[in-house]
């Protein structure tokens, strides 16, 4: 591996702090700076990890010519604006999901990547989880046979999260279920049709004008005979947290367990078998392999709610960091790059629009023309 070092700044230190020690130990990174509006929190994290460069002002961080790449972990409403500012300041960008909240914002980011020549990667956890890597390995070895159908779900109770989540349309935060159904066949979504079902509390509806408890979307994959289905819920639906995907093949099928922490199921023909999902730390540099099993938020009262509910995001965090950094040092596109991230994100945005229109078929923009 090349010894090139990328100087990284992390913005947002709630969930974002999870990535600090991974960058510190990765052989291709220098964990250079952190940014947080709350100065007390900024100094607490900076002291804990020994990071000297600290910013409370994002605009000032972007003026720092030492910074090569920005990893954004701020509230979703800030993602597009901060990504665009970083790209235009000459920084590479890794951004937590979703890419943006509107189709136009996604288009602007794709265009900014083209204009600046900088790299953008949406840090979608599920497509680097051990479960996804397990199914991907089976598929690439030919064990699944021909892919016939893919289904995914992300069901979560968001009560108790920050206020901007209240009443959010379910499909506006759909990348955890859209990501795997597009990433496995390496496909783009062509068009969507989505239905809403049920009704959330009236005081929640007024926030975004979205009434649905659950949204369920069919996705037609471009240049493929495949379609996929994704289901999303955020409020007023009784169900244990679940980020899942099922992959139906002509030889074997993978189905996610119905109860968290139980073994998943592989059907060979009509014969089912419970399977232990292996870890994929061996794909990573030795320095960061331990982070597939543990992280900053693993002990005591320091756990982040997304990490608790998400069951550690399937060991994906070091894989995400490794993909981003190696793409930069190898001068190649990461997965998902800007165009792929826009396609994944806009499935959810346009799915909700479809649901509000009674299931109307809505085509995805062609971001390759941006």
Automatic annotation (TrEMBL):
**Mind listing the GO molecular function terms for this protein?**
nucleotide binding
- InterPro entries (UniProt xref): Gfo/Idh/MocA-like_OxRdtase_N, Gfo/Idh/MocA_Oxidoreductase, NAD(P)-bd_dom_sf
The Gfo/Idh/MocA-like oxidoreductase N-terminal domain sits at 6-122
Question: SUPFAM superfamilies, alphabetically?
Answer: Glyceraldehyde-3-phosphate dehydrogenase-like, C-terminal domain, NAD(P)-binding Rossmann-fold domains
Cross-referenced Gene3D superfamilies: Dihydrodipicolinate Reductase, domain 2 (3.30.360.10), NAD(P)-binding Rossmann-like Domain (3.40.50.720)
Question: Which PANTHER family does its entry note?
Answer: D-GLUCOSIDE 3-DEHYDROGENASE, UDP-N-ACETYL-2-AMINO-2-DEOXY-D-GLUCURONATE OXIDASE
Q: What is this protein called?
A: Gfo/Idh/MocA family oxidoreductase
């Amino acid at each position: 591996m090349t010894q090139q070092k990328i100087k990284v700044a992390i913005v947002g230190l709630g969930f974002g702090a999870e990535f600090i020690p991974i960058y510190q130990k990765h052989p291709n990174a220098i964990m250079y700076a952190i940014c947080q509006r709350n100065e007390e929190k900024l100094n607490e994290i900076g002291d804990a990890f020994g990071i000297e460069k600290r910013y409370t002002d994002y605009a000032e961080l972007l003026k720092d010519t030492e910074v090569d790449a920005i990893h954004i972990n701020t509230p979703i409403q800030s993602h597009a604006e901060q990504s665009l500012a970083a790209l235009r300041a000459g920084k590479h960008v890794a951004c937590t999901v979703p890419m943006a909240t509107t189709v136009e914002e996604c288009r602007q980011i794709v265009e900014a990547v083209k204009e600046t020549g900088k790299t953008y990667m949406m840090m979608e956890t599920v497509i680097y989880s051990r479960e996804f890597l397990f199914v991907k390995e089976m598929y690439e070895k030919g064990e699944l046979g021909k892919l016939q159908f893919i289904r995914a779900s992300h069901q979560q109770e968001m009560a108790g999260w920050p206020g901007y989540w209240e009443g959010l349309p379910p499909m506006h935060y759909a990348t955890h279920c859209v990501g795997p159904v597009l990433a496995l066949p390496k496909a783009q979504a062509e068009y969507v049709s989505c239905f809403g079902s049920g009704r959330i509390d009236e005081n929640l509806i007024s926030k975004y004008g979205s009434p649905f408890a659950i949204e369920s979307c069919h996705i037609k994959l471009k240049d493929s005979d495949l379609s996929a289905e994704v289901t999303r819920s955020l409020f007023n639906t009784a169900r244990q947290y679940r980020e899942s995907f099922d992959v139906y093949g002509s030889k074997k099928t993978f189905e996610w367990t119905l109860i968290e922490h139980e073994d998943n199921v592989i059907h060979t023909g009509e014969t089912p078998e419970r399977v232990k999902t292996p870890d994929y730390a061996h794909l990573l540099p030795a320095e960061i392999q331990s982070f597939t099993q543990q992280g900053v938020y693993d002990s005591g009262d320091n756990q982040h709610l997304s990490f608790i509910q998400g069951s550690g995001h399937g060991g994906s965090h070091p894989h995400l960091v490794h993909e981003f950094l190696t793409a930069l040092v190898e001068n190649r596109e990461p997965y998902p790059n800007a165009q792929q991230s826009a396609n994944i994100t806009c499935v959810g945005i346009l799915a909700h629009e479809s649901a509000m229109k009674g299931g109307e078929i809505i085509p995805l923009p062609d971001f390759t023309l941006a």
